[in-house]
Amino acid sequence: MTAEERQSVTKPLPVAAIIGPTAVGKTALSLELARRLNAEIISVDSRQVYRYMDIGTDKISHAARREVLHHSIDVVDPDEVFTVASFANLALEAVERIRARGRRVLFVGGTPFYYHALFHASMNVSLPRDAEARRRYEEMAKQEGAESLHRKLAEVDAESAHRLHPNDVRRVSRALEIWEASGIPPSRLYKEGAKADSGLNVLYIGLTRPRIELSVRIANRASRQFASGYPEEVAWLIENGFDERFPSMQGFGYKELSLWYRGEKTLEEALERDISRTRAFCRRQMTWFLKFKPALWYDSSVLSMSFLRRKIYDTASRHLDGV
Fold first, then answer.
1. Residue 214 belongs to a domain
2. pLDDT bucket at 10, cuts 50 / 70 / 90
């Protein structure tokens, strides 16, 4: 049954989603909730869809995946195209399988654009704006010239660059803003087009942490990844033909370690740049997530308090039961 058919005969299906920035603690809470709610997890992470990219994307362990079934992880090779539409189709197919087993649906991940496309609006209109990114690109045009900004767009989306005049700084900046937030060339989004009519009623459970604490967690996680085989993972990918030509290898960490592999950065420089880009990405994530409704937000630094975890469970359970 398609989403349209399901929606025509039933009310929207209640689902829950755990959102929040990178390194905030979504995984631990999601596993506990999934166990207690008899739920399966649909990953909402644009990087974890790629096979062989495990350490840098901080994928959940295979042991945990055996305990709690996860969907939308390891579905394509790093040289394959994976679009927002690809995610929406996979997610809706997973919802059907999960419900056929009589289980609940829990979305978990930190890719705001995937949530936005699935639950909120079309893939090519009404996208949340990022004032910080816009100011940065407009300042780049002032400092380096409009042509420099246009060349940057051409590097990530030649089709959009061909369509936009170099002096149209406002629209060039907007195209770069969309690419930065989604990791997807705007021209591809325009082609993918229509609104995802998911037939789902989502409740967002948002996690936050104090900014300084989150910044430290990001640095600690990156250091752990670098010490646990991340450079070797990137070397293996490049040696097997999965290099910077592909969008999968342009993400934070992978891009920096690709430069390290080619002798253009030291390992220490790659680590620092990875941490810096991840922190910037966290800020962009929250710009999007704070617009998502309905949402209940919790400070994950105090989730060790049992009454708070119980409150989150009770809230999610009532929503999933349609109460």
1. yes
2. low
